[in-house]
Structures are given as structure tokens and as C-alpha cells.
Design goal:
Radius of gyration: 29 Å
Number of strands: 0
Order of helices and strands: HHHHHHHH
Number of helices: 8
Distance between the termini: 60 Å
Shape: elongated
């Protein structure tokens, strides 16, 4: 009886032991193509968008919970709970402004917040998965809000508005560079195929 380890494969000229050793060292991770790493810029933008989802969803839930309630009473209870003076100018300002909120306006507010949350969720997941359509969608939506953000800064300059504008301009520029670089690569590849 012949030793199995000593037998040699006629086709490859390798012993069974060599084949087993190769099979053991060539794990699926070594045989499969290397995993591509995520684009760090897209991951960062995706995380920002998913953070906006949480913010807009929470604001939508808050507006929804104010339906069928006296907003003035809710604000007074909140001011008392946070130990604000009931005679403070801020509380009086909020109470005056809350008088314009009716059921119909609150319904519109929470619908808008939920729509924004849904849109940001689609953008965030699409960017995480590095989908081209998500890059174009985010580019278009970001570009559409830039004029409004500039107008708001000219109306009243605040740190929050400047920060949001800065983040959105950086997102826009990064995605614009990414999309144009991809379009250029595709154009060059098409020209090379036509030349050959």
C-alpha cells in the first residue's frame, strides 16, 4: 500500500502533502480579491447625513407630540422645569411666538421634518454604499440650499449659520470634485476604447 502523502499528482507534479499545505494556507481571505476600503470622505458625509436624520426625526416627533396641546402651557411647564424666570424676555418672546402655531402649521412642520429625515436617510445610506446616484442627489440638494444659507448669513450672522454653510460648501466641493473626476475617467476610457 502506497503512502498517500508520498503520492504525486501526475498533472501538476506536486505531492498530495504539497497540495494540502497550499489549500490550508490559501484561506478564502487570501483567494478572494482584497476588500476595497470605503472612501473616507463619503463615510464622513454619510455620518453627517445620518446625524441629521436623528436630529430631524427628533424634531418631527417633538412637533407631532405638540399636536392637540396648548403650546403656551407646554412652554410654561418647560420653563418652570428648566428653572427659567417666567418673566424673562426669552420666555415672553417664545410665548408670543407660540401663539401663531396652530394645528395645521404644526402638522406641516412635522411633515417637513420627517421628509427631511427620510431624504437624509436615503442620502446617508447611498453615500455609505458609495452609490453614484447618492453623490448626485446629495450634490444637487446641497447646491440648492447654498443660496438660502448665504441669504440667512447676510440677514443675521451667527456662528451656527456660518458653521453650517462651511460644512455644506465643503460637502459640495468634495462631491463635485469626486463626480467630475469620475466623469473624466469614464470619458478617457471611452476615448481609449474608440481609438483601439
Amino acid at each position: 500500500m502506497q503512502n498517500r502523502c508520498a503520492s504525486v499528482n501526475v498533472e501538476t507534479g506536486r505531492s498530495v502533502a504539497q497540495i494540502y499545505a497550499t489549500a490550508m494556507t490559501d484561506s478564502p481571505s487570501r483567494l478572494s480579491p482584497p476588500l476595497q476600503r470605503h472612501n473616507p470622505g463619503l463615510l464622513l458625509i454619510s455620518a453627517f447625513k445620518l446625524g441629521e436624520v436623528l436630529l430631524f426625526f427628533a424634531m418631527g416627533v417633538g412637533a407631532f407630540r405638540l399636536l392637540h396641546k396648548d403650546i403656551g402651557d407646554v412652554l410654561e411647564k418647560l420653563a418652570y422645569h428648566l428653572r427659567f424666570s417666567p418673566e424673562s424676555r426669552l420666555i415672553n418672546f417664545l410665548l408670543i411666538k407660540s401663539s401663531i402655531l396652530d394645528e395645521r402649521l404644526l402638522k406641516r412642520i412635522y411633515e417637513v421634518f420627517f421628509i427631511y429625515a427620510g431624504l437624509d436617510l436615503v442620502e446617508g445610506i447611498g453615500l455609505y454604499l458609495e452609490k453614484t446616484w447618492a453623490e448626485y442627489l446629495t450634490l444637487g440638494i446641497t447646491a440648492s440650499f447654498l443660496p438660502w444659507e448665504l441669504f440667512e448669513i447676510f440677514r443675521k450672522l451667527t456662528l451656527i449659520r456660518v458653521s453650517l454653510l462651511t460644512v455644506n460648501v465643503l460637502v459640495f466641493l468634495y462631491l463635485f470634485r469626486l463626480v467630475t473626476a469620475r466623469a473624466k475617467r469614464i470619458h478617457i476610457a471611452r476615448c481609449n476604447r474608440q481609438d483601439s
